[in-house]
Specification:
alpha+beta, about 20% strand, Alpha-Beta Plaits, globular, two-stranded antiparallel sheet, 4-stranded mixed beta sheet, disordered C terminus, about 15% helix
Length: about 250
C-alpha cells in the first residue's frame, strides 16, 4: 500500500495562494479557515529586508502528536499515510490543536474570522452542520473529516482523501498532467500554477517525490519535534525558514 506524501519546491512557489483558494472550494471551508496557509515573513534587518513566503498544509506526520493526545481516538492515521479526524468521535476538546506544532487545525465553532459570516448567510437549517452553502461538495464522510463540518469539532487538511483514496493501486505519483491520475490528485497540487507541488508514494523508490527529496535534499518542518512530517520542502538555504534546516 502507498504511503502518500507531498513535496513543495519553494524555489518555484510564487506565494500566489491558488492552493489556499482551491482547497477552500474543494473542502467547503469557511473564510479564514485555511487548511492550506501561505505564511509571509521578512528576512534581514530594516531597511534591508526581503519578503518571503512559506506554504503550510497539514504535515500528515508519521508519528503525529495529535493522535497521541486525542482522548476519544477521533484523530487517527490511515494505512496509506493520511492523518484524519472522525467527526463522530470528536468532542472538540482541542487537545490536538495544542499538541500540533504546526498550527494547522481549526475549531469550527469559533467566532467567524472574516465578515460577512457565511454561517448566517447560509444557515444549516437545524442540522448538525455548521453551515449549508449551495455550492457544497457532494463528498461527505464524517468518519474521515470530509464534507461540511458538524458543530463542535476540529477540522484540518485531509490530503483531499476523498480523491487520493480512490487512486489506482500501485501508482507512484498523482499528477495533474497525467490523465490517468488527474482526478485523484489533491486540489492544491492540481491548481499550483508554477508546478511547485508534487504528490506521490513515499514508499515507492521510483516515485517523483522520492527522487526530488533525495536529489534536492528535501527537509521537513520542525524536524526536532519527532513528528516526522510527510510533507517535504525543497529550496536553497535562506528560502526555507531557518528553523526548518537541520544543524550541520
Amino acid at each position: 500500500m502507498a504511503k502518500w506524501g507531498m513535496v513543495i519546491d519553494l524555489d518555484k512557489c510564487t506565494g500566489c495562494q491558488a492552493c489556499t483558494t482551491a482547497c477552500g472550494m474543494e473542502n467547503n471551508t469557511l473564510p479564514g479557515e485555511n487548511w492550506q496557509d501561505v505564511l509571509y515573513y521578512n528576512v534581514g534587518t530594516y531597511p534591508n529586508t526581503t519578503m518571503k513566503w512559506f506554504p503550510r498544509p497539514c504535515m500528515h506526520c508519521e508519528d503525529p502528536s495529535c493522535v497521541h493526545v486525542c482522548p476519544t481516538r477521533a484523530t487517527y492515521k490511515t494505512e496509506d499515510g493520511a492523518v484524519l479526524i472522525d467527526w463522530n468521535k470528536c468532542i472538540g476538546c482541542k487537545y490536538c490543536m495544542i499538541a500540533c506544532p504546526y498550527g494547522v487545525r481549526f475549531y469550527t465553532d469559533e467566532k467567524p474570522l472574516l465578515q460577512p459570516a457565511l454561517q448566517d448567510i447560509f444557515p444549516s437549517n437545524g442540522s448538525r452542520h455548521t453551515w449549508n452553502p449551495p455550492y457544497k461538495s457532494p463528498h461527505e464522510d464524517w468518519t474521515k473529516g470530509i464534507g461540511i463540518q458538524p458543530r463542535g469539532v476540529v477540522s484540518k487538511c485531509t490530503f483531499c482523501y476523498h480523491k487520493v483514496s480512490r487512486a489506482p493501486a500501485g501508482v507512484a505519483d498523482l499528477d495533474e498532467d497525467d490523465p490517468n491520475t488527474k482526478e485523484f490528485t489533491p486540489a492544491c497540487v492540481r491548481t499550483c500554477a508554477p508546478k511547485a507541488r508534487y504528490f506521490g508514494d513515499l514508499d515507492n523508490p521510483n516515485s517523483r517525490v522520492n527522487k526530488l527529496i533525495q536529489d534536492k535534499r528535501g527537509v521537513r518542518l520542525l524536524e526536532h519535534t519527532g513528528n516526522k512530517p510527510q510533507v517535504y520542502y525543497l529550496g536553497e538555504h535562506g528560502t526555507v525558514p531557518e528553523f526548518t534546516r537541520p544543524k550541520s
